[in-house]
Amino acid sequence: MDAASSTVPPAEPIVLAGVRKAFGPLQAVAGVDLRVPRGELFGLIGHNGAGKSTLFRIMLGLTDADSGRVEVAGVAVGGPQWREARRRIGYLPEQLALYESLSGRETLAFFAKLKGAPRAQIEQLLELVGLGHAAERAVRTYSKGMRQRLGLAQALLGDPQVLFLDEPTNGLDPQAIKEFYELLGALGARGTTILITSHILAELQQRVDRLAILANGKVVAQGSVQALREQLALPLTLTLRGTPELLQAAREAAGDCARALLLPEALQLHCERHRKMELLARLAPLAGRLADLEITEPSLEDLYFGVAA
Ligand SMILES: Nc1ncnc2c1ncn2[C@@H]1O[C@H](COP(=O)(O)OP(=O)(O)OP(=O)(O)O)[C@@H](O)[C@H]1O
């Protein structure tokens, strides 16, 4: 059985190797390698113009790469088996055009027809995204969160193996974002592979399995947030609270082990990861008298600025 007729998803539903795309003199995608295993929630981040949308369009077969290998859902994008494989891919663009006068149910029926997906899935998807109660209402009466959930439902028509989500949580409130990611978690647990872009790094940091940071068309770092912390070796921050005398003593005890920043009511010590235990040992004699000690890992935003800025 060949890959196109197989219903078994490949172990790596997204494989890019040496992918390049230029627009005139501009190298928008400059040699990207990416492998995303089945069931992973993978984030793609980067500055405006970094090449994220171009890469999405290449993976969806909407734009041809100039060179390189692009495989999605187990087949070469644009190749002889692509038409069939495209049905196993869902896409939620950043701005999905919806017909305001259609109801939620009619909207899904419209997309199901376009995609050749069974209409029988519509009710189930409306329930899955929490729109069962609003299925009869015109889209014009939907909130932003409801529209995004309807967008996700259309992307899920045909039970895709791979989902591409472009800024799907833009404009959603914190509760809606939480629910959106819970839904993605459930899809991942059933083996759906999800590629997601977002400019809200704090949001991605807690949720993605791995991510790639794209800058000027190149992947400049790739891995789990923790792996990137270790790879990029950005300093940890210890924040100490206590009396001014104690903070001064802590600063002296830290010595060359950390870069110290004395704030009005706290001392911040920025320390390289491999010297953390040495620093804690130096501070140990003071620990009993400190009011508080907090260790903060570099955030995804720190990591991003560490490589992409
Ligand atoms: N059709 C096109 N013709 C010419 N240049 C293009 C075209 N599409 C994209 N570009 C250029 O390629 C580069 C990458 O654009 P792309 O839209 O992929 O970036 P992005 O990372 O998605 O940015 P954003 O976060 O702003 O959406 C940009 O410099 C953009 O101007």
Name the beta content range. Answer: 25-35%
SS field, number of helical segments: 11
Over all CA atoms, what is the radius of gyration?
Answer: 24 Å
- Strand line-up in the sheet with most strands: 6-7-8-3-9-10
Q: What string, H for helix and E for strand, traces the elements in order?
A: EEEHEEHEHHHEHEHEEHEHEEHEH
Structural class by SSE content: alpha/beta
Approximately how much helix is present in the residues? 25-40%
Bound molecules: adenosine-5'-triphosphate
- DSSP strand tally: 14
Relevant CATH superfamily of the largest domain? P-loop containing nucleotide triphosphate hydrolases
Unreliable segments (pLDDT under 50, ≥5 consecutive)? 1-5
| CATH architecture heading of the largest domain | 3-Layer(aba) Sandwich
The CATH C-level name of the largest domain is: Alpha Beta
Estimate the mean pLDDT confidence.
91
Q: What is the number of independent domains?
A: 2
3D shape: elongated
CATH names the topology of the largest domain as Rossmann fold
The largest sheet, given as strand count, sense and whether it forms a barrel, is: 6 strands, mixed
Gap from first CA to last CA: 47 Å
